[in-house]
Design goal:
By secondary structure, the chain is α+β, with helices and mostly antiparallel strands. It folds into three domains: about 100 residues, PH-domain like; about 120 residues, Probable inorganic polyphosphate/atp-NAD kinase, domain 1 (Rossmann fold, 3-Layer(aba) Sandwich); about 220 residues, Tumour Suppressor Smad4. It is about 20% helix and about 35% strand. The structure holds adenosine-5'-triphosphate.
Length: about 475
């Protein structure tokens, strides 16, 4: 065994091996870094980025990830990893056995997932999820020795249906190669299980492969990682997790569990009605958005909210009486929302007309929309952005600021955090026989009279909705 320089992390094993045809000391540090000397220069793998190893005859092949340009110019390439193998030959059978034991112990100590259930939505976004999975995701998971059970979703709500009955103890996580839609299905399916409390501890991972990838963008962007399939996969392999607030939207006994957002007015109208311009790709939002601002709609209605500490000055004081709920015996066995005593809270209200009401759970609504720059994954609050009447030019400039989140600084936008929320949606000001659309997590929750495709079924009616937040209820794979 060879001595180590003084400031280096302690060695788990240090031994002479053959690497690239020459005998060199090789060290595995306690941080999971391999260090050796090549042509007189010290070389190393990045700490903790050994994916797996295999024995090939007398040699050991270590599969690692290397940050492109590491040590030369890191900023531009941050998070851009490439796969690289390091092959070495221990000098004896005994030494090879010790190396294998130590590498195995190191990998076991990292708490990485061993078995994942993977949903691939071949119809999400521009229909590239299958290709992304096969070319970018699967090879990395295989190199990390993670066992996969892959299920392509065959129809809407397929993922939700499956997670309602899977044996959660068989998996270390669920991965969605999709847009945000499958994530929402998975969370709703898990919450409908009688064992929801345990089921929600199963981490959910996202690989961006849809048109709305707001959740994974919210996870990767703050740590400087690109919103790519590769960085998302590496984050899952590393196995770190974080908790995520879940909002319960209820109308009578009907419930929907939201992890991203709820919109009514301008944002919902652009999101849903621009569907008819789907062929334009993401430009549909800008072009239809422009049209909606030029022919601006305003809606009657009222919102009630319980402000987070520090936001008590928004709106006017109000009282709220909660609708009677059915006795527990009449309810399904799944999660029923947080046990908050809503009557005891300090409610405030804002009255219409409204241009837009937007609630957000995480910062990014889509890859280019920083909807709620101060939103936190598990602060127990939703970020509320309210827009009332404003000059069209101001609204247009506000829409152009959505990509950097500065729209919330506009004097025409109110931006606050709320603990509970009630929406009482009303009719349009210009055409009072028409109502709007309520959109949650990209799905139409309610369609009012004479709204876009109003004869299609929606989960709830265009009426009062109540929203409460359960802090950190769900679990996500996260880069940090
Ligand atoms: N095989 C399928 N055929 C049709 N729809 C499906 C299929 N599998 C899943 N879906 C539905 O596709 C919807 C969108 O999924 P996803 O979130 O992956 O994509 P998205 O790109 O964010 O959404 P969209 O393409 O609708 O904008 C989900 O609501 C899901 O239920």
């Amino acid at each position: 065994m060879d001595p180590q320089p003084e400031n280096d992390p302690p060695a788990v094993i240090s031994d002479r091996v053959i690497a690239n045809g020459i005998v060199t000391p090789l060290i595995l540090t306690i941080d999971g870094e391999l260090r050796w000397t090549e042509s007189g220069r010290r070389k190393s793998t990045v700490g903790k980025d050994i994916l797996s190893f295999v024995v090939e005859g007398n040699k050991v092949r270590v599969k690692t990830l290397v940050e492109r340009g590491a040590g030369i110019c890191c900023k531009e390439n941050a998070g851009d990893y490439t796969r690289k193998d390091f092959v070495f030959e221990p000098l004896s059978d005994e030494s090879r056995k010790i190396w294998c034991d130590k590498l195995h112990q190191h990998l076991q100590s990292l708490g990485r997932p061993k078995k994942l259930l993977v949903f691939v939505n071949p119809f999400g976004g521009n229909k590239t999820a299958r290709k992304i999975f096969i070319e970018e995701v699967k090879p990395l998971f295989e190199d990390a020795n993670i066992q996969l059970e892959v299920q392509e979703t065959k129809y809407q709500l397929h993922a939700k249906e499956m997670v309602r009955s899977i044996d959660v103890s068989r998996y270390d996580g669920i991965v969605c190669v999709s847009g945000d839609g499958i994530l929402v299905e998975v969370v709703n399916g898990l919450l409908e299980r009688p064992d929801w409390r345990t089921a929600l501890k199963l981490p959910i991972g996202m690989i961006p492969a849809g048109s709305g990838n707001g959740m994974i963008k919210s996870l990767l962007h703050p740590v400087g990682l690109p919103c790519s399939a590769k960085s998302a996969t590496i984050s899952i392999i590393r196995g770190r997790t974080r908790s995520l607030d879940v909002a319960t939207i209820s109308q009578g006994t009907t419930k929907f569990f939201s992890v991203l957002m709820l919109a009514w007015g301008l944002v919902a109208d652009i999101d849903i009605e621009s569907e008819k311009f789907r062929w334009m790709g993401s430009a549909r939002f800008d072009i239809y958005g422009l049209q909606r601002i030029l022919c601006l709609r305003q809606y009657n209605g009222r919102i009630l909210f319980v402000p987070a500490p520090g936001f008590e000055s928004y709106g006017q004081p109000a009282s709220y009486s909660v609708d009677k709920e059915l006795p527990v015996s009449d309810k399904a066995l799944g999660y029923q929302g947080p046990d908050t005593k809503l009557e005891d809270l300090e409610w405030r209200e804002m009255k219409g007309p409204f241009v837009s009401v937007w609630l957000h759970n995480v910062p990014w609504g889509a890859e280019n929309t920083l909807a709620a720059p101060n939103a936190k994954f598990s602060d127990g609050f939703l970020d509320l952005i309210v827009m009332k009447d404003s000059p069209k030019l101001a609204l247009l400039s506000l829409m152009t600021k959505l990509n950097d989140g500065t729209h919330v600084q506009s004097p025409y936008a109110s931006y606050l955090k709320v603990k509970a929320f009630v929406l009482e949606p009303g009719t349009r000001i210009d055409e009072p026989d028409k109502e709007g659309i309520i959109d949650s997590d990209g799905e139409v929750l309610a369609r009012g009279k004479k709204s876009y495709k109003c004869d299609q079924k929606a989960l709830m009616s265009y009426d009062k909705l109540q929203i409460t937040v359960d802090q950190g209820l769900a679990t996500l794979f996260s880069p940090e």
